[in-house]
Sequence to fold (301 residues):
Amino acid sequence: MGIYEEITSNKRKSYLLVFFFMAFVVFIGLIIGVYWGNQYFGIILAVIVGMVYFLFSYYSGAQSILTMSGAKEATKPEYTYLINTVEGLSIAAGLPKVPKVYIIDDSALNAFATGRDPNNSYVCVTTGLLKKMNRQELEGVIAHELSHIKNYDIRVMMLAAVMVGITVLLSDFLLRSFLWGGKDRNREGNQLTFILIIMGLVLAVLSPFIGELMKLAISRKREFLADASGALLTRYPKGLADALKKIKNDPDPLVDKANKATAHLFISTPFRHDGKKSTWFQSLFSTHPDINLRIRRLEEM
Fold:
């Protein structure tokens, strides 16, 4: 599959996943509303909770992630080469504004992008990655991260994280509603209500789990898209492929301040792994697609 076909395919699949994610959240709100005797109540509740979550994440999420990761802003002359690389590739990518560059003092080989849109974005790399990558490999990694920004992946993943938060809150509210009872006195003896309660209980328990799986699926799709877009930007897929090989063979891939909330942002999983090929079931819980598959796709471009 060519680069343009890869980009088109991954965009279509990602938007489809986000659509089902949003529909799933609205459905939870609808179940809450039906149980309490007014379906609009549940939908409005889902919208209000979603707006609060989104507004906080939209305006404060990026800075919170950088602070949580222990990132510091890169300055000249110490990081002149890195800053110039980001500036040059940002111009080539047609970004309206050059992202701010941050550094994490960590020996692991990794990087990530965050922000709310191309006008408010950040690129962050570890000191370990800077030391180990040659020019083409570093450009491949930076192009990958800038592609996340250009393709609005940073907003998509923010939306996915917000949706997971909403499903957790709404599921908890739904479960408590069943435990403490609703306001509709006509439910007793109603067979349909009994079925609704059973479905609702199952949904309340499984919703956070399903929501997390959907977020991870979106994350994996966006990584493939950023690989393809990054290769298109540099016109040299081998650079990113070679960088991923070094990242794959990193003897200490653990980014000390990474956590499950930020893991999906990195170019590769920031946790330790045993190097064994993951099973299909294990891959469902992975923030990133198999790195060997990513390398192979790049080498075939």
Notes: Residues 3-267+283-300 form one domain. The chain is about 65% helix and 5% strand.
